[in-house]
Amino acid sequence: MTSKTPTPIQLQINGHRHELEAEPRVTLLDALRDHLGLTGTKKGCDQGQCGACTVHIDGQRVLACLTLAAQAEGRAITTIEGLAGEDGALHAVQAAFLEQDAFQCGYCTPGQIMSAVACIREGHAGSDEEIREYMAGNLCRCGAYPHIVAAVRQAAVEATS
Amino acid sequence: MRDFSYLRAGSVDAAREAAALPGAMLLAGGTTLVDLAKCGVAEPETVVDITHLTGLDTIVIDDRGATIGALARMSTVADHAGIKSGFPAVSEALWQAASAQLRNMATIGGNLMQRTRCPYFRDPSNFPVCNKRSPGSGCSAIGGVTRSHAVLGTSEACIATYPGDLAVALVAFDAKVHLGDRQAAVDDFFLLPGATPEREHAIQPGEVITAISIPGTPAARRSTYLKVRDRQSYEFAAASAAVGVEFEADGRTIRDLRVALGGVATKPWRARAVEEALKGKVLEPEVVRQASLLAVEGAVDHGANHYKIQLAPRVVARAILKMGETA
Amino acid sequence: MTVHEFRTRPGDAKRGDASDGAVLADQVGGRLSRVDGPAKITGAAKYAVEQRLEGLTHAVLVESTIAAGRVRSIDTAAAEASAGVLLVLTPDNILPLRTATDWLGTPPPDVAYCPLARDITFSGQHVAAVVAESFEQAVAAAALVKIAYDEALAIVDLSDPKAGDGIPVDAMTKEWGEAETAFASAPVRICNAYNTPREYQAPMEPHGLIAKWQGDQLTVWEPSQWVDGMARTYAEWFGVPFENVRLVSPYIGGGFGSKAFAYGYGAVAAVAAKMLGRPVKLAVTRPQTFTAYGGRAATRQTVALGADRDGKIQSIVHRGVNETSVDGMWVEPLGSVTSVMYATPNFSSRQNVVRVNTVVPGALRAPGENPSAFGIESAIDELAYEVGIDPLEIRLRNYAEQDPHAKKPWSTRQLREAFAAGAEAFGWSKRSPEPRSMRDGNQLIGWGVAAGTYPVRRAYGEAVVRILAGGSVEVESSSIDMGQGTYTILAQTAAEVVGVPAENVVIKLGDSRYARAGVTGGSRLAGVMTGAVHKAASAALDQLIGLAISDPASPFHALQANTLVVADGRIASPRGNGPEVSIAELLRSVGREHIEAKGDTMPANSTVEDRYKNYTTIAMALPHTEGDYSRYSWCAHFIEVRVDEDFGTVRVSRVVSALDSGRLYNPKLAESQWKGGIIMGIGQALLEEGIVDRRYGRIVNNNLADYLIATNADIPDIEVISVGIPDPHSSVLGGKGVGELGIVGVAPAIANAVFHATGKRVRDLPITLEKLI
Fold first, then answer.
1. Which of B294, C423, C435, C740 could form a disulfide with C366 if both were Cys (CB 3.0 to 4.6 A apart)?
2. In terms of CA atoms, which chain C residue is nearest residue A112?
């Protein structure tokens, strides 16, 4: 595959297969938002500097804005839309964000939550200091940081109990 | 972003072949290439995706040292038990770099190819003059906003700072870059700008970084990476130091010392003068502080980056003294 | 979708939110979780440019690369030939628009408006735009537009020798007594200059919009702090009636003052949509957000304090300057806090604005009060050291018992209580007074205090409340929620008034088709809208009870009651006799689909024109010193910093702030907003600075890796304490402003703490490491 023109891409997102036609230069972020209507993943800077576009690829948190859609073909992608259970039950991190009021405008929130889920899974939620450092790649201009730390702490405790 | 074609390499040989084609660029984590393509700095004709190659992400620790596959992710290396115990400076340099997400994307090989954050380099539409992008056009940074620019290794053609952290630790511990059959010392792999700032790495078209290796030494085992910046996290270094110390049996006299600087030079900067001045000396705060001043010998500032000349030796001294505390 | 908390523990109740003890989460003053939360945490909330429309096209702006001069020519050939390109807009082919009324209500001059510039007055000005079938095609083609300029000499910033002293703004002059004479003869004199740089709102959601025309009807999906004001601007640009423009903004990814107006790029998108006959999406890129609209103007102030040896202020002489653009006017009121914080018999404040080649600056969280507080709250700290008095004590010694400028009593001023509560929680009494006297290894520790204030801005609002057949309540308003909690507090208000659970209230916001609202800015919305919803909901309840009492088909008809009560969605007699039915049952029995009431807080004799003016300009806003009182929110920040003595790096390690925002409609959300303001203040103090390349008059750090805002790792746990009491003079339900207040005073508290830690006084923000090394 060496064409510059739109070519078919198959993406495995939230357990479902999605097909789209996209040029090789289309990022995963634009593929999700513009091509597939999965707008829960946010575009805050489009240059790897804010974390709003955080998704999971093969279980690892990454930035969709610096990932080409073509590159993600064959990988398992999880977005905020795929985090809650099939029955709509909130993920423990989502519930903790709501309870701790860990967001205001909500725009960085999907990225924060995806990052937090991974942060706990990585084992980087052992202390408030560690949470702060390992959540530093998700900027929040509303300034919900202390409540984000509280939410991650709460969900991490729930995950181990 | 200009359009390009996408090629997924099926083997290292296929990657080499594709990378040799005009206008081809290797794509690993994408954190540099996709970013620079969006800035209009990188304009590949073909992007050769090597992230689906298998077997290039292994980390092997043995009695000679560590060998890290080029496609190992920064985060994996940072959290690797053998790296943390045998090469703490490497682990610390990695986890203090960028953000958790970027470290999950970026590979060790790609990290060595990271390019400068010079704002003039990154903005071709507003600053067409840049010797790195357009050789011979001049340097927009000189005379401009220079707070983040280099004070060591600069030339009249370029004062752009090497922004990375990992390579600073690598250069301190004499790591080697594996380019297939060939190996190059990391110190030689990174080039000074001189009159040709467009050439940043001693790598030929068609060469692919396959691994890096770090000799296991007592100094690497007792090492640290200290990164100083205004923002606590997710920022490039104002100044950083990778330091490793080996003491004589008395636990106070320095047998071996490794010092390298980040955030202040045009390439990862080995400070051999500091090492030589302190080898054989007993680790005393004032002695260390005096010797650390040698780290910035020959430094040249461009106004707003003058603070780096004051800061860098203090970072070096603190890092060395910290190694003494754990003796 | 609504999350329902039942009862807050009595111990959680704080003054100002629950003076009557436990408050139901559903009621005003309760800690109800955000009702818009579930949509935001699941990714279901659709922000403006996320609409999917048939035939959507993508526009990308092309900006000037010079700061002053004229466009000589624009070569669009390569862009037009580029794949997928539908239109390249330039000043030469764009449809002419009309100039619109400004936000103050000034009638516009009868001249054409062109959002693409031929005459360049700043670097980053919109010159052209490319519209293509796909985003990627538009981006690529935009890079191919070649613009040739005739460049002129630019005035790059306040320190440019060409800038001069600027233009006096007489309206900013505040004077009483003989300030200069009194200063000259004061036993203790302090006089210093304080500077703040260009700062940017940097909301996480970049600006942008989708514009779509159907005939002469325009729909705009755009994040907006002022749906009606922006709709009016679009309508006037295109010469169509206000009603023909629908502006939709249900979710806003942060504004901080930057999303209250329609800007040039909006006009570009709407024109392109009209010219193409297709909807156009224009998403401003992150770098473009630094010049597509203005951030906070760079400011300079000189504060001279004359005092006696006991630290009692005898005179304040204050001079301020802020930058504005070459062709626009922005005044950042630098004397706003200076003139009200402390009692002084002699006072003089004057301000100039200086024109430089920049985009016209704009509002950023607490415009005016924020830099003003940096000046006066740093200066009084300097005075404290000069006379050897504790920085907290000197503030109490100069406490203003009434508004020193307006000479009126405060409506409420719990600042003394804020100082006391904050100092107690922080442990201020354990402070060692000497600079550099507290340390932990290489870290110098400093404790600083500063006060802040923000006026209570008031206006009128309107709301529609419907009680629906199923027994739920619906509230409609064109006001917005950008994270302050409008959805939630209006749900609480309607729930409390009508007597239903908050989860049975649906709040619809952010659409210009709804009942109107003025600007969401200056912390006025919560007070305005809780009042309007309270009124509309009361009217709806009256109708409901009226029907229940008087409709022959009502089960209560035979009871001949004077009134009935509604609680938890059920109607009953206050005495408990007679039937008890649900709202749904009552509406069914009387055969009503719904009850609707519109309420507003406008004066009774208001005309249609008054209303239009009120909702689309700020001309009708009520002064905070109107009538018998002076109305302000107040706060005191106590901050600990740790400064590395070798590296000069500053980290904030502890914050305790006590704040008086009057009654809190929802303490959980108010605390979040306060903390958000404090955190933005930490970034302002230590990190944020738009850096200009003085050769080109251009911001070079126009991105989030180089314009640093605080990360999670920069922020310690923050304790906020509410010391407010209900203020009946400030709003219908007793609240004062929340959102702007928290940031005011944070930067000087940090600068004061840094002085205490290091003995170095930094008077230029931000306090970056090279200033302390």
1. C740
2. C41
**Interatomic CA distance for residues B160 and B174, integer angstroms:** 24
| Shortest alpha-carbon distance between residue C530 and chain B (Å) | 39
* CATH superfamily name and code, B218-325: CO dehydrogenase flavoprotein, C-terminal domain (3.30.390.50)
Domain A7-82: assigned CATH number: 3.10.20.30
Please give the ipTM for the structure prediction: 0.98
Determine, for residues C712 and A140 on separate chains, whether the beta-carbon distance falls below 8 Å.
yes
User: Contact C647/B125, CB-based, under 8 Å?
Assistant: no
Give this prediction's pTM: 0.97
Q: Which tens digit of pLDDT belongs to each residue from C401-450? A: 999 999 999 999 999 999 999 999 999 999 999 999 999 999 999 999 99
pLDDT digits 0-9 by tens, C557-602:
998 888 999 999 999 999 888 899 999 999 999 999 999 999 999 9
Instruction: State the amino acid at position C740 in one-letter form.
Output: E
- Shortest distance between the Cα of A77 and any Cα of chain C, in A, equals 15
Q: Which residues pair with C319 in a beta bridge?
A: C302, C350
Identify the residue whose tokens are 């590949």. B44
pLDDT tens digits for A7-22? 999 999 999 999 999 9
> Are C471 and C600 found together in one domain?
yes
Peptide bond before C391: cis, by omega within 30 degrees of 0? no
Total number of domains in chain C: 4
Residues 31-60 of B with CB under 8 A from A: 31, 34-35, 37-39, 46-47, 49, 51-52
From the list C417, C585, C740, C770, the catalytic residue is C740
pLDDT > 60? residue C16 = no
C767 with C681, same domain? Answer: yes
Domain identity same for C765 and C698: yes
C740 is catalytic: yes
Nearest CA in chain B to A67: B30
Of the candidates C20, C26, C34, the residue with the CA atom closest to the CA atom of residue C7: C26
Q: How far is A57 from chain C (nearest CA, A)?
A: 18
Burial of B303 (0-12, 13-18, 19+ CB in 10 A): exposed
Asked if C519 and C260 touch (Cβ cutoff 8 Å), the reply is yes
In the predicted structure, residue C646 carries a pLDDT above the cut 60: yes
